[in-house]
Design a protein that fits this description.
24% helix; elongated; 2 helices; three-stranded mixed β-sheet; binds zinc ion; alpha+beta
């Protein structure tokens, strides 16, 4: 699973992630989810603390209660459509540093998915 939409509300994101984590844990016949490695792109606008907060709240009375979430951040990356250069986002400067082109697209930083998780 991978969400492409940026800036979704954390609570609905956590609801989806938790549902998926529980589903996977059930398939693995796990009794408890220990930790979850979550990949978060910098363009998603997701705030770690908010995710942790909602997760703690929503996972009560599930086997994910008390699970630790590890955040793995993916930096934002842009690609120039004119010269194919891939470069990190330069603060609001949506221009190619090589050819000064303005036809720029986002190619990294919108990731949001569970990389893996530890269960027992
Ligand atoms: Zn360029």
């Amino acid at each position: 699973m991978q969400y492409k939409r940026p800036a979704m509300h954390e609570q609905s994101i956590v609801e989806s992630l938790l549902a998926l984590a529980l589903e996977n844990a059930e398939k693995a016949k796990a009794r408890k989810i220990i930790s979850i490695n979550l990949v978060v792109g910098d363009y998603t606008g997701i705030v770690d603390d908010a995710v942790s907060f909602y997760f703690g709240f929503l996972s009560k009375n599930t086997i994910a209660a008390g699970a630790k979430i590890h955040f793995m951040h993916v930096p934002g990356q842009m690609r120039c459509r004119d010269c194919d250069l891939i470069f990190p986002l330069q603060k609001r400067d949506f221009r190619c540093p090589k050819c000064d082109g303005k036809r720029i697209e986002i190619v990294g930083g919108r990731e949001l998915y569970i990389e893996n998780m530890e269960v027992e």
